[in-house]
Amino acid sequence: MVAAASLLGTVALTGCAKASHDGASADGGGPTKITMWTHSAGNPGELAVYRRIIDDFNASQGEYQIVQQNFPQGSYNDAVTAAAAARKLPCLIDMDGPVMPNWAWAGYLQPLDLPASLTDSLLPTAVGTYRGKVYSAGYWDAALSLFARRSVLEKNGIRIPTVEQPWTLAEFDAAVGKLKDSGYKTPLDLGAADKGEWWSYAYSPMLQSAGGDEIDRSGMRTAQGALNGPAAVAFFSWFQKAFKEGWANSDGPVGNQNFVDDKVALSYTGVWNAKDALDKVGSDLLILPPVDFGKGPRIGGGSWQWGISAGCGKAQSEGARKYLEFSFQDKYLTAFSDSQVVIPATAGATAASKYFGPDGALRQFAVLSQKFALARPATPGYPVVSTSFEKAAKDIMNGADVKPALDAAVQAIDSDIKSNNGYGN
Amino acid sequence: MAETARAPRARTETSEQQLRRRRRAWSYLVLVGLSVFFLFPLVFMFVSSLKPDGQLLSDIGGWRAFLPVGDISLHNYGAVFDRVPVGRFLLNSLFVTVAIVGLGLVVNSMAGFALSRMRWRGRGLVTSVVIATLIVPFETIAVPLVYWVAHLPILFLQDGTLVWDTGWLDGYQVQIVPFVANAFSIFLFSQYFSTIPTSLDEAARIDGAGWFTIYRRIVVPLSGPAFATVAILTFLPAWNQYLWPTMVVQDEKLRPVMVGMQYFFQDNPAWGEVMAYTSMITLPVLVVFLAFQRSFVSSVAASGVKG
Amino acid sequence: MTATFRLDPPADPGPGPDEPRPGPAAAGARPATRPRSARPRSARRSEARAGLAMASPAILLLLAFLIVPVLLGFVLSFTNARLVSPEPLRFVGLDNFVRAFTVDPTFFRSMVNTFAFAAVVVPVQAGFGLFLALLVNQRIRGVTAFRVIFFIPVVTSIVVVSILWKFMYQPSGVINSFIDSVTLGAWQGTAWLNDPSTALFAIIVLSVWQAVGFHMLIWLSGLQTIPEELYEAARMDGAGAWRQFKDVTWPCLRPTRIFVLITITIAALGLFVQIDVMTQGGPVDSTSTLVYHAVLTGYRQQQIGYGSALSLVFFVIVLVIALVQRHLTRDKD
């Protein structure tokens, strides 16, 4: 009896669940429904801005209606991969910038086709281009920096670096050594307790600053030489040393708590932790440029961006485009920035933003982003590049021999490229 | 014989009692020690759920991790509700779990009955295949399964009319139907059913009863413990489903509780809320278990899980 | 005692399933011979029809949601299939298997880790479970409460458990500070999950902690079927606690032993969630397992053809192990 009741329940509930789905959107009357997926579930601040944009858009016209579906970031890629494999992607998809070429190559995205005046007005790292066509665009970018306390550096006689004259590697090593001697058990938090895309995002710019790269960007056909050449070996030897010497560790917690508690003196972390640090540390807080490993400082660029799926119907694509165009208004970009503490993608929105405007307390991040940001390699092979990079870097951190670990990563990346016929490059 | 057995025992009564008392004391000591071992992570979880993140992280290195001291409040619980539709997720999990367990009891017990008490061509083959499927971990078939269910036909109601479509992504059925049939349950049922004398079947057959009647009127009423055991053993994995719903459930309104866990891992994890949420989703299972533990323990004992 | 654990199906169309299983219950109630041959053919045909009908819902569901995906994976493992790709599907013969065994060191490492995990967890969890069962099988006050406490980790989601233990394993976490205070500071803590030499061990501990309550209950159910008279007889022969265990308990637990052995083995070989939540196979592949590696390559890295090949290798290995176990534990009679 229980079973019979639950059987009936299944039918009834799937019925009403399915009716709200836009897959088979009603043609007869009413606005065309367009589904969009965000990675923002569990982030009320960001969702509130989306809510506002969608409400405004839905109210501004009667032709289209945006239906929002939110996923938690941690399982977003699992959900998208499953939907892509099943050919059931929604019209509007949120994606982490470097993944875009993979999807465009696979045929899951259509060119964005937004007015050039719009995409040209955005930060270069907020626009995703693959084979000369724009496929994605984002409202903001993030940036990394070294957080420090002015008082601590001054007390230890360490020069405060500037954007014009950042720390050299030798200077940095000396500074970290001094801080360790001054009583910090682990002076540096590199964020190594984190996992996933963070590794490529945070540490591949250091590698580039040292003269290496995740892949040879001319042609994108091999990682040979870039990821296992002398520059890469030198950088990763330093990376390993930083952990071996106890300058940094991978104990966590993920985030900036160690810096806020003054357990570490330097914290390599993102703009998203800046507000909290500012609240706790106050005017003593320094937002320092990244270390120059030899070829000039670098930080990662490219954050979450929006694209339109190739499987999206003609009328719905039209609506999706209208919605995106509508959403790139400065006021919304400023709202995202104020709520999420991220750098707005347009100059106008930046000027109006609370933290990054001319007098904003975190303006330095906008400067760092403009001067040093470099996007991760725009190649369809990126997912394997990123996971191989992460694995190699983690193994090296945990004591693996540098050169063989890098060779293994190169081997994994190259064999993936080969098995995909060079990804059309 | 009873007399001779009792005589020597009476003589050593006191020393034997002493021995027994000492053994009992040791038993309690070990039992309490083990209880600490089995409970401390859960105490840590609950205590941490009452603390703000900063304190939680600085407390983990000592005994304070297990003590509700410092800045204690229910704030994390309130914050959980702002972030996750907890009630909705709990109801979804409850519904999916009850459906899997309920349908599973019927389907698997019928199969167990047919495999253990009836003679039909192909039974040996089916039994072999069912047992072979025990070795397939779900994770290894998840991806082909996604691909496959995405192409299954589905019938649903839209605006009062029945509509055919393809694709099982989303909805409740994709969370329920693939998990109804369960090789382990079939195996347990057939083991238990085979201990019930078949002479009962024969008698019923002579009285003209059909096989389904025998199943329903004779075997099922005698198999309470087997049903209880299977119910509990299928309840746990159904409630704890994790990988599958993240892959196939798109509509937020249909998500189960375990997916909600990811909501707390933003740029920085909100640990206090994680602990509050895990406490909240663990509690219902604990309550169910505590309510039924007496019958569960005895039913496992009675059901012939022993083999 | 009433039924023996059998992995092999009864012969078909053999005698009734009750017949090869002589047990006190069945033997007592069953007539000495069954008038099988006297039954008319039509009755047998209707029995066949009804049997198939009653088994068919389960058969169809298993077919649709287990066998078909397994077969699909079987086919995919001989192709270059990827989840996201414009490349046409191509049969590549044994390429994926060659890759696994020649150029994928993580695969080999995963195999070693999987076996190491199972080799430790199977005896430890089985033994610890039996120890707990013996403890809570005593007739002492409050014993039910202890049964419940030992079982509580089983009803806690493994995802939750993994998150909690990951926290406690931190270098500055409670486990290190506990060891530190027990050894009076003689033993400095370690970064359990970040050290290749301790990570798998750390996962073994929490896995046993989580699952042992279940097997305690299984052992307990076995213990409770042992007739008290056997113990009384042994005591009368002057057997002490150890002799009682060795001569009565252990032999009587034989079917339970086989059941416990096989269920732990299957669960241990399928280790996945703990790895996914806690270490993602690291550090330096020291916790990567076959199932984790198959999911990582087949799903997260989208090389479903290769991932399916790894799954297939896994199935074959588990099947071989199950058959070996069955052979070793077969009925001697």
TrEMBL record, chain B:
Keyword Nucleotide-binding: no
Gene Ontology biological process terms from the UniProt entry: transmembrane transport
Keyword Disulfide bond: no
UniProt-annotated location(s): Cell membrane
Ranges for domain ABC transmembrane type-1: 90-292
Keywords: Cell membrane, Membrane, Transmembrane, Transmembrane helix, Transport
Recorded topology in the membrane: Multi-pass membrane protein
Cited Pfam families: BPD_transp_1
Main subcellular location of this protein, as a coarse class: membrane
Gene Ontology cellular component terms for the protein in this record: plasma membrane
UniProt cross-references to InterPro entries, sorted A to Z: MetI-like, MetI-like_sf
Annotated transmembrane regions: 25-47, 89-113, 125-150, 172-193, 214-239, 274-292
Family to which the UniProt record says this protein belongs: Belongs to the binding-protein-dependent transport system permease family.
Alphabetized PANTHER family for the sequence: ABC TRANSPORTER PERMEASE PROTEIN MG189-RELATED, ABC TRANSPORTER PERMEASE PROTEIN MG189-RELATED-RELATED
Name of the featured protein: Sn-glycerol-3-phosphate transport system permease protein UgpE
Encoding gene, per UniProt annotation: ugpE
UniProtKB/TrEMBL annotation, chain C:
Membrane-crossing segments per the record: 51-76, 115-136, 148-168, 199-220, 258-275, 304-324
Main location: membrane
Cellular compartments annotated: Cell membrane
A Pfam family per the record: BPD_transp_1
Bilayer disposition of the protein: Multi-pass membrane protein
Location of region: Disordered: 1-45
Start and end residues of each ABC transmembrane type-1 domain: 111-325
Residue stretches of biased makeup (Low complexity): 24-35
Record keywords, A-Z: Cell membrane, Membrane, Transmembrane, Transmembrane helix, Transport
A Gene Ontology biological process term: transmembrane transport
InterPro entries assigned to the protein according to its UniProt record, in alphabetical order: ABC_transporter_permease (IPR051393), MetI-like (IPR000515), MetI-like_sf (IPR035906)
Gene Ontology cellular component list: plasma membrane
Gene3D superfamilies according to UniProt: MetI-like (1.10.3720.10)
Transport as UniProt keyword: yes
Family of this protein: Belongs to the binding-protein-dependent transport system permease family.
Protein name (database record): ABC transmembrane type-1 domain-containing protein
Organism lineage: Bacteria, Bacillati, Actinomycetota, Actinomycetes, Kitasatosporales
